[in-house]
């Protein structure tokens, strides 16, 4: 009897091991397939750090890319956003090529980088533009790209307010009203004029993509829970579900690390439209 039980146990363990091996093989095969689609090249071992690259490639391209409800174009726009925010420019170069390979337009790539400016500052955006433009030039894409601005100089405040108010109301104006002197008026005004008037009004990206990638940039910055809370609600208002936001955070994990992604997930959990 003991012999039969032992045999059954051995068979059961063997089946589980085979299943685990099959799952691992499936993950590896998926990683190879996705890598080829993105980079138009076979996934090869690193000459210096093969173990780390094996973990990285199988995790990102064999697992993360298959979790959640995002298409690959959106995933690459998210990746470009967080790489711009983090200033990890060698990887930004690779993923700009990947985005173009799967059909993301140069305009879309440029616009997600432009949209980062009010949140991460213009110098970092200029660094990122040097990188993406070098890729565009190498691929024969003529620069400058088509102008996508829609607002005249004297319209920046009013057009910006049209974008800002339905999503965020006058919260910033109320928060700043007790500042001394000119600052009570100037700070909320320049936010309306620049963030919303100069950028939200641009063509080339739909509002859902703008809000989603902005949330990813805020998550990448860290220490922005207050702003993430506002933009999580903004995402819900434009039609991005919590599931979509969570999918984006899972996609960001390999590039940001778990603590910042975990903080962003907690903000999403608590987000409600009032």
Nutshell version of this structure?
The chain contains 14 helices and no strands. With 274 residues, it is mainly alpha-helical.
Describe the protein's architecture and organization:
- This protein is mainly alpha-helical.
- It has three domains: 1-66; 71-146 and 202-274, AhpD-like, CATH 1.20.1290.10; 150-194, no CATH class.
- The longest helix is centred in the first third of the chain and has 38 residues, at 2-39.
- The protein has helices at residues 2-39, 50-62, 72-86, 89-101, 106-115, 117-120, 122-138, 156-168, 171-176, 183-200, 207-221, 225-238, 242-256, 258-270.
- α1 packs across α2 (50-62) and α3 (72-86) runs antiparallel to α4.
- The model is unreliable at 1-23 (pLDDT under 50).
- The protein is built from 14 helices and no strands.
CATH class of the largest domain: Mainly Alpha
Q: Outline, from the CA principal axes?
A: globular
Euclidean distance between termini CA atoms: 66 Å
Main β-sheet: number of strands, strand sense, barrel status?
A: none
Strand content: under 5%
Low-confidence stretches: 1-23
Determine the number of helices (DSSP H or I, runs of at least 4 residues).
Answer: 14
Percent of residues in helices comes to: over 70%
Query: Secondary-structure element sequence?
Result: HHHHHHHHHHHHHH
User: What is the CATH topology classification name of the largest domain?
Assistant: AhpD-like
Q: Summarize model confidence as the mean pLDDT.
A: 92
Overall structural class, as computed from helix and strand content, comes to mainly alpha
Counted up, domains total: 3
Number of strand segments: 0
Per CATH, the architecture of the largest domain is Up-down Bundle
What oligomeric state is this? single chain
CATH-wise, what's the superfamily of the largest domain? AhpD-like
Radius of gyration: 23 Å
